[in-house]
Design goal:
Layout lengths: L1 H8 L3 H18 L5 H8 L4 H29 L1 H21 L3 H28 L6 H27 L3 H25 L14 H10 L1 H17 L5 H9 L3 H27 L4 H19 L5 H29 L5 H7 L5 H16 L2 H13 L1 H15 L2 H8 L1
Length: 408
């Protein structure tokens, strides 16, 4: 019991609230969003390109919104940005239940991406604000694990609702986000949270953008992640269409793959992260990109359960190596008073989440799924060039002189 208390006590109560909220909200989101392309294909009779555009609107808006939201949280505080974002996401999912045309789905999914992009970097920055530096890697790993605990349950429920009542899944997700927002309102009022950005120099939006633009290591990191995301996002956009169209039990295989992906992350995140800590972050991300590309190649040969499971295992190992390391890298690059801005700038990686479904949808409509996976595997491997360049730049720039330059 004493060990449990000590473990819980190492993090601020708000950090635990955010972790628990991540489990619930991500579980609800994974119950709906992975099946959005199937819902649109069945009920709207849209082409793969239009479906890709609709699914991609969320990350497109997230690309712009993340930087703005992160900067606003540095200037005006984490609390208002987080709460407004959560309440808006709840309204979006309620809107999905009554949407009846493709235009409404595009608009609502765009608003969904914008609101989430405000919330995510702000929540990450707040967790860093409230956590000692030596414990932040553990917090980022716990957060990523929390995301996947929710993702391990959501798809199973979503697969059932996708064939019965998709609109019910939208309503459940909206209610979950609404409840999350209400709990945060209560607890953020109970615990007075001051983030470090408010006690330091506050820069203007234009100055913040200039600082980000001049950070070469960050720029390489973002470009590399964009390429990775173009491949990874196929799991949520074009893979379900391919499996449903080519396999009799495609939806069941797809929902099981997402669950396997999430369960692997839950159980392997910490041990793999422990091994990865012995290497440089960029080197870990290079290895992760290779595993992810291998998973995409194997997906091109899927004819049943065995090959599909092998593909998701390879892709998941790459995911575990890349994404937490990416967050830790942002944390190391960011000055304290610009932490929200840096985490917001990292949302530019969602350009890949926007381009991936559209590019993949084009390849799928013009050629076939196998060609699509091969080309996107090559695209993912291309990230290695930028991760390697970023590693060199990081080792040169992460010096006291660099930090002083950024701060001034």
């Amino acid at each position: 019991m004493a060990k449990i208390k000590n473990y819980i006590g190492q993090f601020h109560p708000i950090v635990w609230v955010l972790l628990i909220g991540t489990v619930l909200s991500r579980g609800a989101a994974f119950m709906t969003l992975p099946f959005l392309s199937i819902y649109l294909s069945r009920h709207m009779d849209l082409s793969p390109i239009v479906i890709g555009l609709t699914v991609g609107m969320s990350p497109l808006m997230g690309t712009v919104g993340g930087f703005i939201g992160g900067h606003l949280s540095d200037r005006f505080g984490r609390k208002p940005v987080m709460l407004i974002s959560l309440f808006t996401v709840a309204l979006v999912y309620y809107g999905f239940t009554v949407a009846s045309s493709p235009g409404w789905f595009v608009l609502l999914n765009a608003l969904n991406g914008l609101s989430n992009s405000f919330f995510e970097p702000t929540a990450q920055a707040l967790m860093a604000d409230l956590t000692d530096k030596e414990k932040r890697m553990k917090v980022y790993s716990l957060r990523y694990t929390a995301m996947n605990i929710g993702a391990s349950v959501g798809p199973l429920v979503g697969a059932y609702l996708a064939s019965t009542s998709a609109k019910l899944s939208f309503a459940i997700t909206g209610t979950t986000y609404l409840s999350y927002a209400i709990v945060l309102v209560i607890l953020l009022n109970k615990f007075i949270v001051h983030h470090t950005g408010q006690s330091k120099k506050v820069v203007s939006f234009s100055n913040a953008f200039s600082i980000i633009k001049s950070d070469k290591a960050l720029r390489y990191l973002i470009i590399g992640i964009i390429l990775v995301n173009m491949g990874y996002v196929q799991i949520d956009s074009n893979l379900p269409q391919i499996l449903e169209g080519s396999l009799e039990n495609g939806i069941q295989i797809f929902s099981t793959l997402i669950t396997i992906n999430a369960v692997m992350v839950v159980f392997l995140q910490m041990p793999i992260s422990h091994i990865a800590e012995k290497f440089r972050l960029m080197q870990v991300m290079v290895v992760g990109a290779i595993f992810m590309a291998a998973g995409l190649v194997v997906f091109s040969f899927v004819t049943g359960w065995t090959v599909a499971i092998l593909a998701i295992v390879l892709l998941t190992i790459g995911e575990i190596l890349i994404f937490p390391s990416n967050n830790m890298m942002i944390d190391r690059l960011a000055p304290e008073h610009l932490r929200g801005t840096y985490f917001g700038a990292a949302q530019f990686r969602k350009i890949g989440n926007f381009l991936g479904p559209i590019f993949g949808g084009y390849l799928l409509s013009q050629f076939q799924g196998q060609i699509m996976f091969w080309i996107l595997a090559i695209t993912t491997i291309g990230s290695v060039i930028f991760f390697s360049a970023g590693n060199k730049s990081f080792m040169k720039e992460i010096t006291p002189n660099r930090q002083e330059t950024i701060r001034t």
